[in-house]
Description:
Elements: H1 4-9, H2 11-21, H3 30-43, E1 67-77, E2 81-90, E3 97-101, E4 120-131, H4 137-146, H5 164-175, H6 178-183, E5 231-235, E6 247-255, H7 258-270, H8 283-289, E7 298-306, H9 323-347, H10 352-362, E8 368-370, E9 373-375, E10 380-383, H11 391-400, E11 406-410, H12 413-418, E12 424-426, E13 431-433, E14 444-448, H13 459-474, E15 476-480, E16 485-489, E17 493-497, E18 508-511, H14 521-527, H15 535-550, H16 557-573, H17 580-596, H18 604-627
Parallel strand pairs: 5-7, 10-17, 10-18, 11-14, 14-17
Antiparallel strand pairs: 1-4, 1-6, 2-3, 2-4, 4-5, 6-7, 8-9, 12-13, 15-16
Helix pairs in contact: 2-3, 9-10, 9-15, 17-18
Amino acid sequence: xxxxxxxxxxxxxxxxxxxxxxxxxxxxxxxxxxxxxxxxxxxxxxxxxxxxxxxxxxxxxxxxxxxxxxxxxxxxxxxxxxxxxxxxxxxxxxxxxxxxxxxxxxxxxxxxxxxxxxxxxxxxxxxxxxxxxxxxxxxxxxxxxxxxxxxxxxxxxxxxxxxxxxxxxxxxxxxxxxxxxxxxxxxxxxxxxxxxxxxxxxxxxxxxxxxxxxxxxxxxxxxxxxxxxxxxxxxxxxxxxxxxxxxxxxxxxxxxxxxxxxxxxxxxxxxxxxxxxxxxxxxxxxxxxxxxxxxxxxxxxxxxxxxxxxxxxxxxxxxxxxxxxxxxxxxxxxxxxxxxxxxxxxxxxxxxxxxxxxxxxxxxxxxxxxxxxxxxxxxxxxxxxxxxxxxxxxxxxxxxxxxxxxxxxxxxxxxxxxxxxxxxxxxxxxxxxxxxxxxxxxxxxxxxxxxxxxxxxxxxxxxxxxxxxxxxxxxxxxxxxxxxxxxxxxxxxxxxxxxxxxxxxxxxxxxxxxxxxxxxxxxxxxxxxxxxxxxxxxxxxxxxxxxxxxxxxxxxxxxxxxxxxxxxxxxxxxxxxxxxxxxxxxxxxxxxxxxxxxxxxxxxxxxxxxxxxxxxxxxxxxxxxxxxxxxx
Length: 632
């Protein structure tokens, strides 16, 4: 039985050993046995943490052909490709023929007997995968600390060539004017939003610009300024079970053979000599689909598990499969909720009601769909946000420390007219060009309408605003395939910060009532603690928000009857006082209130509290409307 270092450092030896053992028995099912071997190894306690992570370790420190893992999002799916699953080599000195396994490899050994009858052509699928878009720094640091693995001591890293990132840094800085470089971060207004203010580029960082010059490859990250590797993941089994935009942790064999770049260069240089009918790929498609392995490594998938959440403080297993963790967490949720409520009240200028609704928003989640209606979404419009002291940016920075993935979009005229929010199909390169709304599930999207200014939206701006409206209303993004649009469902928490009522739709609007005198707001903002005082308290908040979002929920028949009777009674006196839409919002608020206290079913007290909160909110909005009669 291979040791731990054997199956991690030399997984191909394990595969080839099983292949060789089956040479005399073609029906032995060696492929399934090989996959099962690695799955069982990775299911052993904490064994997955022994596998080096492409997210955390620079590529040149990873041993080629070793087992690695990659936490990623499927950004694009390429066409299937053929490869030699089994082939035969001939030793020229002895004329000996040997059957070889071509699975989990990009390049075959020398001396292939092309006329052999033993060659087996197989098919595999290729996914273009990128790091989870908008994954916050605290998540990356926690994942790196929890799974820090030293690279194999038997491999000496070499770095004879400058990395792509260094070349891109040099060229982009030379070719872009200063103003253009300042604007390249798109929606990321605060300088420290994604990097904690550290301007030094890490070794795994990718170019911040989505548009590159002709000599460079666009890594096609959905968000500007993203850092990390991208990989071409080769999938051999059940590729139809995977979906675009799905978040995975992939365990696979790393392939960075320089021969891949040589093959691509040879193919590119000879393409002009070929008959057009002999090569269906354009030069641009060849460049995108076969980039240098030193830039976009290949990962041959052995095992992949869906990532239900990317909070490293939670166990990977489902909550119901970890009863001890769930029990201890639920017992503390009410007290943690009170601490978080006090903290948000402080952040929201002393407004406890707005803090309540902010908590409900952060734990909301699309748990089901009924026809086209997404159930569970709770887009919140925080209106009345101060425009002094960069309040909205500071609010985002606070939320960024609490949620695993997020993105700040300042809705300035420039961003609306210039940013690419919706992914589109590039038929020349035969790839899906990413957009800022190609996000992983449960990403927090912060829309800052306080950046609005006078001006004219061009056609791109109109399409972007329409896309945001569709995302909020239907939790879907219509990808642009030139001749048609294709709907892709999503699950994104949208928070809108605005001065007045948002121009975008929302499920709930609450106007912030500062308990601070207007002339003291700037001074008060300066005194706000950006982070809770202790890291343990911060981790409690992070854990609380993720667990509340993952809990199951139900309503008993008895409570359902009570809610129905309440609705009838409320409409008796004044049928116009409450609509079906109001009832739906109350039910969503009641659900989220229950979950926020660790309760997985609705009680009558919970329903009464939800009604009371909605009454307070609607009364506030009516009062605000009477004072500001010109506001819609």
